[in-house]
Amino acid sequence: MQIQLLKAKIHRATVTQVELDYEGSCAIDEDLLEAAGIREYEQIHIYNITSGERFVTYAIRAERGTGVISVNGAAAHKASVGDLVIIAAYAGLDAAEAERHVPSLVYPDADNRIMRTAGSIPVQAA
């Protein structure tokens, strides 16, 4: 049996452009893709913190160092420039893999530059 676990997350990235008349996908700065371990054409889930929209698409590479987060195609209806989003990728793992698994977490600043990375989500005090 396999279970779906969080593989990677880019937390609170800022949408820099939306392109309705594009084939589809989400273009992500190559620095962010590499830091998160998200591959080009990999399925991603996008959670729009600003609007509450949630949708699934795939990642494509944007030019390194540009800070680009471009929501494209039909998904462009679900985001606006300036929206904060969480971009997540999941992996199917068996029990043994799940025991060893550590997600890649990337925390960008307002310009989508990497501020820090982590392997676990900090526990919030109640």
TrEMBL record:
Pathway: Cofactor biosynthesis; (R)-pantothenate biosynthesis; beta-alanine from L-aspartate: step 1/1. The modification Pyruvic acid (Ser) is found at S25. The keyword Protease does not apply. Its EC number is 4.1.1.11. It is found in: Cytoplasm. The active site is at S25, Y58. Transmembrane segments: none annotated. It catalyses: L-aspartate + H(+) = beta-alanine + CO2. Its cofactor is pyruvate. Binds 1 pyruvoyl group covalently per subunit. Keywords: Autocatalytic cleavage, Cytoplasm, Decarboxylase, Lyase, Pantothenate biosynthesis, Pyruvate, Schiff base, Zymogen. GO terms for molecular function: aspartate 1-decarboxylase activity. Substrate binds at T57, G73, A74, A75. One of its GO terms (biological process) is pantothenate biosynthetic process. One of its GO terms (cellular component) is cytosol. Is synthesized initially as an inactive proenzyme, which is activated by self-cleavage at a specific serine bond to produce a beta-subunit with a hydroxyl group at its C-terminus and an alpha-subunit with a pyruvoyl group at its N-terminus. Belongs to the PanD family. Catalyzes the pyruvoyl-dependent decarboxylation of aspartate to produce beta-alanine. Heterooctamer of four alpha and four beta subunits. This is Aspartate 1-decarboxylase. The gene is panD.
